[in-house]
């Protein structure tokens, strides 16, 4: 037992040994004695030495984790990164694969009879923000050894969508897939609820709380009250946690969360239509909703009319913002015209096919027109789905899932922002094979776009290519601790063995197929369990957005 990396509390909680470090405090009687100056200096030097040793070890650990999936790599990414970039796919993606299989030292979930209580989760924000909360909630339930109740979705935010978890996600699959990691139930048993003397305790934990916080502050309440609800649950778990827990995050996000059959079917239908028109296509996610522009203080060139309309939406209590300054500092999303200029500068031809994923765009078709001038083959879900989309129109979260599917399946994913959908999809596309994902380096690109008229096209294009290095979805962009884990799932990306890399080099054009074969083998445990535990589909009306 001493060699196991997981520690079992008597209360049933399961965490890493390093999360237990420092929890026990010792006390001793102290007597005041005069301290000589040499002794004081010696103590100070000793403390400084220990601090240096500790911070050095931290830096060493961080570097080790950041390089874990490229350790002793046969592929020199740094040297090759100076050459031209293939804009449609990464040359080095074939050397890496998603790896979230449970380790041998990660014990099965404790049986349903022994958990410490029921954990209720109220997610917060838009659908993709809630997705981060759901996958984190699975990990928190594991830390607390709690039975997780299927999370409650946010019905009160701007999106005003009353869809429940069961309307968007395949709930039976979610429960069965996670069975070995966490016990999940649809609801707290009625008999148990009737026996409670008090209603469920409700609390909100601080953002980025480490596992120790949940063990120290949340677990005692859960054990005392038996049913606990955590509200506004988004980004409430620390970014850097034990690697086995990180892999559980990946299993929850990338495997356990499946969309319902009607949503998945419509999304795949749109993907098929795009593929029928072109062998490969781009998906461009645009965030230009009126409220987002108003509260960010950004301006997209609509003149006095735009300034007046956005000012009417913006709260009077908010301070005035210099829109030009915000754009120059890279704080504003790119306009459709700027997205088009970036893509043309990177090398995409005007005959490329583009799927535009978006909610309401301020200015509508007029705002999109400059992008369409640069890329005439531009399509949206409204154009492609037509009648099929009508049942989903009242449900903004369901519409967002359809965009999510098409963006996920696209050959190239492009975004004009760094919002939750951009982050979630960037992480998923890394995990699924480092599919080309382009996000604007806004701090450097925005000033360059503002100076576009001061240089010829070739100069502008070369500058854009230079600025965008490191923002194209290449494997070497992965760094432990960089951004959100959902965006950079470094613990769940592995390099193929040296023998496979050598074989791939010898096989030439067969690399892609070989990579897929290798990834299948590494995830065989996941896939085998998936096939064995494929649940019986629930009632059809329980798996739709429409009621």
From TrEMBL:
Q: Which controlled-vocabulary keywords does the entry list?
A: Carbohydrate metabolism, Fucose metabolism, Glycosyltransferase, Membrane, Transferase, Transmembrane, Transmembrane helix
Q: Which domain of life is it from?
A: Eukaryota
Q: Basic and acidic residues bias located where? A: 511-532
Q: Does the UniProt entry include the keyword Kinase?
A: no
Where does the sequence pass through the membrane?
35-54
- What is a single molecular function from GO for this protein? glycosyltransferase activity
Which InterPro entries does the record associate with it? FucosylTrfase_pln, GDP-Fuc_O-FucTrfase
**Which parts of this chain are annotated as the region Disordered?**
504-547
A Gene Ontology BP annotation from the UniProt entry: fucose metabolic process
State if Phosphoprotein is listed as a keyword: no
Entry's family note: Belongs to the glycosyltransferase GT106 family.
- State the name under which the record lists this protein: O-fucosyltransferase family protein
From which organism does this entry originate? Gossypium tomentosum
């Amino acid at each position: 037992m001493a060699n196991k990396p997981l520690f079992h509390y008597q209360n049933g909680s399961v965490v890493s040994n390093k999360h237990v470090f420092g929890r026990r405090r010792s006390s001793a009687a102290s007597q005041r004695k005069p301290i000589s100056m040499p002794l004081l200096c010696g103590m100070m030097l000793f403390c400084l030495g220990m601090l240096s040793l500790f911070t050095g070890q931290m830096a060493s650990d961080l570097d080790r984790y950041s390089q874990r999936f490229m350790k002793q790599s046969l592929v020199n990414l740094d040297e090759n990164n100076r050459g031209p970039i293939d804009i449609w796919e990464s040359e080095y993606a074939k050397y890496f694969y998603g790896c979230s299989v449970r380790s041998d030292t990660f014990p099965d979930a404790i049986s349903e009879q022994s958990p410490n209580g029921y954990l209720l989760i109220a997610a917060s924000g838009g659908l993709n923000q809630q997705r981060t909360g759901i996958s984190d909630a699975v990990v928190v339930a594991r830390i607390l050894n709690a039975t997780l109740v299927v999370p409650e979705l946010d019905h009160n935010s701007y999106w005003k969508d009353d869809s429940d978890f069961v309307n968007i996600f395949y709930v039976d699959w979610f429960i069965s897939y996670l069975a070995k990691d966490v016990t999940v139930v649809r609801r707290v048993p009625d008999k148990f609820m009737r026996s409670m003397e008090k209603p469920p305790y409700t609390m909100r934990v601080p953002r980025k709380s480490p596992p120790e916080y949940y063990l120290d502050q949340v677990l005692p309440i859960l054990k005392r009250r038996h049913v606990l609800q955590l509200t506004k649950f988004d980004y409430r778990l620390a970014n850097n946690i034990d690697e086995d827990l990180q892999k559980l995050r990946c299993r929850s996000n990338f495997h356990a969360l499946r969309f319902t059959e009607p949503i998945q079917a419509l999304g795949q239908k749109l993907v098929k239509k795009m593929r029928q028109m072109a062998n490969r296509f781009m998906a461009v996610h645009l965030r230009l909703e009126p409220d987002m522009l108003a509260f960010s203080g950004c301006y997209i060139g609509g003149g006095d009319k735009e300034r007046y309309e956005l000012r009417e939406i913006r709260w009077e209590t908010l301070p005035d913002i210099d829109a030009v300054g915000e754009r120059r500092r890279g704080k504003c999303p790119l306009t459709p015209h700027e997205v088009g200029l970036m893509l043309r500068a990177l090398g995409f031809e005007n005959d490329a096919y583009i799927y535009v994923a978006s909610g309401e765009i301020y200015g509508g078709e007029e705002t999109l027109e400059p992008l369409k001038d640069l890329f005439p083959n531009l399509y949206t879900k409204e154009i492609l789905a037509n009648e099929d989309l009508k049942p989903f129109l009242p449900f903004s979260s369901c519409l967002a899932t359809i965009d999510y599917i098409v963006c996920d399946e696209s050959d190239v994913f492009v975004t004009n922002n760094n919002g939750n959908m951009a982050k979630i999809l960037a992480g998923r596309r890394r995990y699924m094979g480092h599919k080309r994902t382009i996000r604007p380096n806004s701090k450097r690109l925005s000033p360059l776009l503002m100076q576009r008229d001061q240089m010829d096209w070739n100069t502008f294009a070369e500058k854009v290519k230079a600025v965008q290095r490191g923002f194209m979805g290449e494997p070497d962009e992965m760094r432990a601790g960089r951004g959100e884990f959902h965006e950079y799932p470094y613990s769940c990306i592995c390099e193929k063995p040296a023998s496979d890399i050598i074989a791939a080099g010898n096989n030439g054009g067969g690399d892609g197929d070989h990579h897929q074969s290798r990834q299948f083998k590494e995830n065989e445990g996941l896939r085998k369990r998936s096939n064995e535990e494929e649940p019986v589909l629930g009632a059809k009306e329980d798996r739709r957005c429409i009621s």
